[in-house]
Specification:
By secondary structure, the protein is mainly β. Helix content is 11%, strand content 58%. It is built from 2 helices and 6 strands, in the order ββααββββ.
Length: 202
């Protein structure tokens, strides 16, 4: 069998930042950032139908797709589901291959704004307080079409679906606090509290 993953992605990010340039005890910086990302992926798994049937049919004593389908039809007819499940006769695909495909698309973007204020209390102590607001929006879609092969998508994917799309957004306000103590030119002691944020996904 062969496996192929063809992926194309584009990413853009920009950040603008302003920083104070005064010589006093008070200093600050502020900024905004923006990003967007587009991802398109096509997954393809291809296998010989007869080899797949021989692999799964080995346990039942069959080594080809026709006998494999006949085995399961007899199982459903004579065991638990008489007349309820119809497997049918096996017809090979046009190229004798089982091709499973899955298409995935992601459209993501977000922005953030932040400000950080610092004040030097004296020659030994300074303190910084910052806050950041972050917003992320993601749209995700996937499609696993029904293959031509009667073996369907059970080797690589295990499912088939039409186009499924969902969209969601997340946001968070996160703080930052730092206190520093500098008893001399060689030593700096600090305590820091920072909250982080990570958006969700699919």
């Amino acid at each position: 069998g062969t496996y192929q993953q063809d992926q194309d992605g584009h990413y853009f990010q920009q950040e603008l930042r302003l920083t104070s340039n005064s010589d006093g005890n008070f200093s600050w910086y502020a900024g905004v950032s923006y990003y967007e990302e587009d991802i398109d992926v096509a997954f393809t798994g291809t296998k010989d139908e007869e080899i797949v049937c021989a692999y799964y049919g080995y346990y039942y004593g069959v080594d080809n797709c026709s006998d494999y389908f006949d085995y399961w039809q007899a199982y459903y007819d004579n065991a638990y589901y008489p007349g309820y499940v119809t497997v049918g006769a096996f017809t090979p695909s046009s190229n004798g291959r089982m091709e499973e495909r899955n298409f995935v698309n992601g459209r993501y973007n977000g922005w953030a704004a932040y400000v950080d204020l610092s004040y030097q209390l004296n020659d030994l102590w300074d303190v910084s307080l910052g806050v950041r607001y972050t917003y992320d929006e993601k749209e995700f879609s996937t499609r696993a079409p029904r293959p031509e092969s009667l073996l369907q998508n059970y080797y690589l994917l295990g499912y088939m679906t039409e186009q499924l799309t969902d969209k969601n957004d997340w946001d968070q306000l996160t703080p930052r606090l730092v206190v520093r103590y500098m008893p001399n030119d060689d030593v700096t002691l600090f305590a820091s509290y920072t909250e982080g944020y990570k958006s969700g996904g699919f």
